Each structure stands twice: as structure tokens, then as C-alpha cells.
Amino acid sequence: MAPGRRSSTFTRLLRHGFTDASTAERLLALPVLGPVRDDPVLLDALGATADPDLALRGLVRLAESQADGQLLGTLIGAKPLRDRLLSVLGASEALGDHLARHPHDWRALVTYEAADLHPGVEEFERGLAGAADPVSLRVAYRRCLLAIAARDVCGTIDVVETAAELADLATATLRRALGIAEAAAPGDAAACRLAVIAMGKCGGRELNYVSDVDVIFVGEAVEGGDEAKALQAATRLASHVMRICSETTVEGSIWPVDANLRPEGRNGPLVRTLSSHLAYYQRWAKTWEFQALLKARAVAGDAELGAAYIDAVSPLVWQAAERENFVTDVQKMRRRVVDNIPVAQVDRELKLGPGGLRDVEFAVQLLQLVHGRGDAALRSGTTLDALRALAEGGYVGRVDAAQFDEAYRFLRVMEHRIQLYRLRRTHLVPEGEEDLRRLGRSLGMRIDPVAELNREWKRHAAVVRRLHEKLFYRPLLDAVAQLTPGETRLSAKAAGQRLEALGYADPVAALRHLEALSSGVTRKAAIQRTLLPVLLGWFADSADPDAGLLGFRKVSDALGKTPWYLRLLRDEGAAAENLARVLSAGRLAPDLLLRAPEAVAILGAPEGLKPRRRDHLEPEILAAVGRADSAEQAVAVARGVRRRELFRTAAADIISSYGTEDRPAEVDSGALVDRVGDAVTDLNAATIAGALRAAVREQWGDTLPTRFAVIGMGRFGGHEQGYGSDADVLFVHEPREGVDEQEAARAANAVVAEMRRLLQLPTADPPLLIDADLRPEGKSGPLVRTLRSYEAYYRRWSLGWESQALLRAEPMAGDPDLGRRFIELADPLRYPAKGLDEAAVREIRRLKARMENERMPRGADPTLHTKLGRGGLSDVEWTVQLMQMRHGHEVAELRTTRTRRALSAARDAGLLTEQDARTLDEAWVLATRVRNAVMLVRGRAGDTFPSDGRELAAVGRYLGYGPGHVGEMVDDYRRTTRRARAVVEELFYGA
To answer: Does pTM surpass 0.85?
Structure first.
């Protein structure tokens, strides 16, 4: 073979899924595989496994441990063995180790009779019968486990059957362990009756490969015996059983036996009598203990005593839902489980994380406990059996149940395969590429197993999370909708408790809204009953669920008779969730929507949340102005368009900040701020253009006696407006040829007055306030000047702050040529050819210091004021603007009205370090987002965090902080702005 060329075997190995083809080629060349090396069946079988490399390594180790060649001969000749053995070796390193230590155990995979396909407890007991001590029990247990794993990974049994077999094997193991313990202490065995009650997944016959086996021990004296001595004997036996299964030997351990679900947990006695158990449950037990008893099943020991225990506690389980604070307790448990997951593991937690297995189990168990009081068909300890019964009983929609079932099965298979690899107790999805590849291939994913696995996992987790909420809230509707006579419903009290647990401050009002929306037999009510369970969950995920539900009722009342409204929410998956997010995130967006509820259609359109640019908005507004009968009517239309676009922008901002089930929250806060700033600036510019056209048309027709332009200033000119921003402007005009200057001035002033009047007329739409205070001489100067007047003023009288203000100047409406010439006039002032001398720099610094001292509101916390506070907007903007005025003449990229672009240009020009630029940018973006959040939440502008707790929490949710983390939000703001202020001190003040 030519140097550098790969062998044909190497290429075939890669094609069959080997990742380390060089090592595989070497292993196949070993003498021990000589009899099968060239058999194509072997390579095909290895390539069909989850991890061909792992399977080959395991096969080599097993072959090396054989005393004869029977294994390899049988392997090639018997397809059932070949599939079973190689599939196990390719999926489980731990079982490969077991086979290497016990080289004859592969024979357990040879037989293929009917009894081997679906063994039960009796078959497993026969497999364990020869074990007389903990070590031999472990070997026999692994031999049985090997057969289960083979049936599992080959697809002979599904995940439900696998879990049931694992539970049956656990039952047989507990019985054998008890037998070993009794043989070691015959006196104790004769002195007591001991029953072992399986709990949790073992009790529900849905066990994992590696899981704690939860048990409760019940003891009684034999007839005529002493109870105290009998309990001592039973305790010794129970302790020995736990050690036999749990302790580590030369063959490892089987699984931990956990008795902490017993009364009083680890602080209570290990064994109690039946009467003692009942006394505790009737008087002291907590809600979670009844929830745990739902899966109780007698599995070992005295069968009569075990059955008596189950008969005695079962009625208590189905009365648990009547206990005070039942639902509250269940929800606290669920939240506590999620909160206790380390932050770094939440996204990989298959069992306890959002959208994980525990979501399914909690939702099903809650519905069982609530509805199982009156329906014995629901009283199953197995999750999927209970889910099927809930669907058949009408408590869960059949489609919902089917999706839930599919997602749960997928997640359980993932869990099984993860644990099977090394037989370790874990519920974390691995991070390594090799582990993810093996996991994906074990689930039948071959083309791109890692990408396919992640996609399917996230899809099923999202389904679980959505359906968990849907199933959880459905009983609330049953409580108020009065659908079927005699149907078991939540009482108003229980429904109220559940709503309180979900964060509703006024559950009575919430129930009224639910009743108004969902009662009756109309098609509208039927659709609402479909929507509301999901919407309630999304409302509860916000800081103000009550406002969300109230807003939804108002919108539904306004649009309920419109045929497209409910159809949109039902059929467009994103529309309903988007509406829920918008209605419960604060006051501004719902207020805008309720003024024209038909705008809800925006939330379902494919491009509905994409802000419309000025070049689209302005023609729409100008066309409407042209059709209007009066200036008032024209500007009313323009302001209506502005209100619609404000809603679009706010909705997009909220949804991007919160995220949805299909799309995570936007992580680039700067992009969010830029989108809002651009959108609000564009729609305000288009509105002003419409008002200008309306004012001119009303009095002068198509042509004003003077050319006229509106120059954006401040945040308006910088494309950095927020929801509550005024429009800072300058007005400039130039008399047309042959028009008297006084006439032109009167016309220009009349236009300005009319524009301001029209834009502030009292209507249902928010006003647009025009602020011209940045004009020459401020409030004392004329409102409108000619271009020559501006030129003369700036040449003779201009102050430093006026040149600085011109950094934001940009034409926004009116005559384009006049606007362009105004900018040509402004450029030498804002970007002086020689930069700034020291006197000018000192003056700017003096003005900034004076503003900090004089303009900060009395009583305001300077560390939290977003505009004037430490490291806030003013600090960053003045620092950037100083660099623009000093260096803008030489650095063309600094000639921009936008703060963030100028900051990036300054960094690229070497005027500040990468770190300092990032620090200033982070602070500016955060302060801007806080201002936007305050406006969205309160419906009015504000420069500091709200004092109201619920409003503060809503600001936190917008900024990405979950419930209970507002303190962390405020600390992060102070830390970010403190760092920014340090940079400002150095760059602006030269400290």
C-alpha cells in the first residue's frame, strides 16, 4: 500500500460508524478475533450498535477471557445472540466489564424462548435463587440485568416494559435479600412478621437501570409474641436487607435501598406496626407523604401484612386532596425541586428540570389525587397507566395525553440509555460529543446523531412543559365551566387555593373571569376552554398573572364576536403565547392593544412582530393624510398608525425579552435596545411627517410659502428613543423665491403651532410631545429660524453645549435639501477642524458636573438613577460625545448620531480600550433597558426602578431575572454602572 493511503478496512470501518478506525483496525487484527475477522456479518452487526468502537473493545475483552472458541462460533451463526450481545457491548461499558469478569454469563443471551422475552417476578426469582450471600446476589442480579438490557437495546421490549421488568427484578432481589437476611438470623425471622412496601418508581413498576429503591417496612409480632421484641427483630432484618443491596463489595453494589419515605423520614423508626403507620398518617403526615403513597405496593416479606397495609393507607391517599393547602404544598414541592438544581445543570437535567420527567409525574399525580377521589379507575401507581385512565375518563384530552405519553417515553428512554452506559445513577444529559453521539445512536439516530438528539430532546421537553401547564390548569376550568352534571369538580375554595399558589393575588376575581370566558355551550366558550389552560400557565409565568387574565378577558369581550380572533389564538400556536406574554408584562402594551384590540392579529402574523421601517410607514401615513377631510382627521389616522406600531414594537420587545417555548429569550440586550430605538424613532419621524403634511395642506394646499425641515435632536436624532420619549427637534425654514421673509416666518411659525396642536389633541391614542428646547438661546429664542439665521447665530454666539447638542442632529421630516444643508452647517461646529482646546474641554466638564449636582431629583438614589446617576446614560453619552468633538474631524466613523456606533468607532480608532468600551456599552444598554422596562410596566416614563414590589418584579422579568431575584437585579445594576463610572472618571474627567 502506498505511503499515506488508508486501507480499505479503515475506510469500511469509518463507513460503519467507527470513530477511531485506526484502533478498530488494530483490534480486528488481533489473533483472538481470527475466526471472525473477515466475516462481513460481524462488521455490519458492530456498525449497528450505539458505539461500534466500544462494542469492539468489549468483544475483544470477552473473547480473550474465553477458554474455547464457542463464543465466536455462536456469535456468527446465531443472529439473536449476535444482536443482543453486541448491542449491549455497544451501549454499556459497565455490562462489558461484567462479562469480562464473568466470561460465561454471555450464555444468558443465547436462549430466545417466549419466557425469555417477557420474564416476570417468578422468572427473576429463579435466576437469583442460587445466590446465598451479597456477592453472589450481585453477580446473579447483573446476569438478569444483562438479559433485560439486551431485550431493551434490541427493541424486543419498549421502555414501559423495560421499566416494569427492572421493577420486577428489584422485587425478586428484595425477596432474595430478605431470604439471605432471614437465613443469617433465623431467630429474628421467627419472632416477627415483616412486609416490604415498594414506593416511588419501584412501587409504580417504572424503575430505572440505576435508581434508589424506595421502601417502607411494616412489622408485627407473630401470634402471641412480644411487640417490642418483634419490632427490634424486624428492624435488624430490615437493616440487613438494606445492607445486602446497598453496600459495596468486590462486585460493586446493586442499588441503594432508601427508607426515607417512612413516617418522620430518617428521624423515625425504620420499622413500625401497621397501627403506628395509620396513627401517623391520620394525624401528622404532610401532603407529599400522601402523594408518595400513591405508588405504594407490597413486594416482599409477609404478603398478608403487606396487603393489609395497602388496604389501610389507600383511602387516606384519596382523601389527601381535601386537605388544607394541598395544591399549594404540591406546587411548593415542584418549585423546590427545580430551585435545588445547580444552575449549571438545569439545562441538562432530564428528570428534575423544566420539561423533564418530574413535570410529567407531578402533573399526572396531581390530577389523580384531585379526581381519583371519585373515580377508582385513576388509582394506578404507574404514570402512563394513570395518564391513559385520565384520558379515558375525560380528565385529559386524548391528543394531549398521546403527546404527553410520547414525550415521557422518549425522555425515559434517554434516561435509561444514559444510566446503562456505566450503570451509574444520573439524570444529566452528557456534554461530551462522544457521549452524545452514543446516546443518539442508541435511539436510532444515525445521520447526525448529536444534532438529531438535541433537536428531539428539546422538542419533547417543550411538549412536556406546555402540556404540564395545560393539564395542571384544566381542573380550574372544570370548577367554573359546569360542563357535565355530576362531574367531579374542584370546589371554589380548592380552585382559589390553586390560583393563589400560582401567583394570582385575587383568586376570586380570577375565577369570575374564567367563568365569564368559559361557561356555556357556545363554540366560543368551547374554544376558550381549550385555550385557557395554556394561557393560565403563561400568565402565571409573569410577575402579574391577575393583570394578564383581566386583559385577556377585556380583549376577548371586545373581539369575542369577531370570527378570526379565537381562531387565530387556537390555530396559530405563537399567537396565544405572544398575547399572554404581552398582557401580563405590564400596562403599556395592554393599554395600546385595548384602544384598538384588532391589533392582536399582529401577534399571529409571520412577520407581525418585525418593526416596520420609516420608508414603509411614511408612505402609509402620507397617503392617509391625502385622503382625510381635515387636518384633525388626518393626524388622528397618523396617530392611530403610531399607536399600532408602538404596540408592535412593545410586543416584539416583550416577547424577545421573555422568550417563548419555541424560541429562547434574546441574549443580546444591545440588539433589543437598538431595535426599540430604531423602531420608535422611525414611527415618530413618520408621524411628524404626516402632521407636517396635514398642517400645510389645511391652510396652504400643497405648497408652503417657505421651505421647511424638522431636524431631530437628542434621542430622536440618535435613533435611541424609548417608549416614553419626547421628540427633541429644531425647526428650520427658508423663504421660497419671491416670498417676503416676514410672511415666510409667519407661515413657518403657524405650521409649528398647528403640528404641536394636532399631535397633542386629546384622543385615545398616546400624544407625541415635540420639544424644541435645544434650539439656539433655548426657551428664550425663536421657535423657528431661517437657515441663514442659524448660520449667523452659530458663527457669532454659539455656546459649547449647543455644538455638543448638534452631535445628535439629523433631518427627520420636511424638505430633504434644506435638511441636508442644515447638517452641512452643523458639521464644522460639532466636529471642529482642530478638535477642542483645553478651555472647551474644561467647560464641558464643568457643565457636566453642574448638571449632576443640580438636576438630580431630590431624594433619588444616585446609584439607581438611569439618566443622571452614577455610570448612567448621561455619563456614557457625555464621555462618547467628548471623544466625538475632539476627534470627529479626523475619524470619519465618529461622525454618527448614535451613541453605540460612536463608542465602537472610538474603540476601533484606539481612543479607548476594548474593555473600557465594553464596560460603557453594557452600562448604557442596561440603563436604557431599565427605562424601557419601567415604561412598559408602569405605562408612564421613569428614570429609576419602581418601588412597588410587583412592578419591580415585572421589571426583573423583562430583564431576565426570575421570581425572587429582584435584589440580584438591583445589585447587578449597581455593579455595572459603578464600573462604568470608573471609566468615565478616567476618560471624561481625566482622573
So the answer is: no
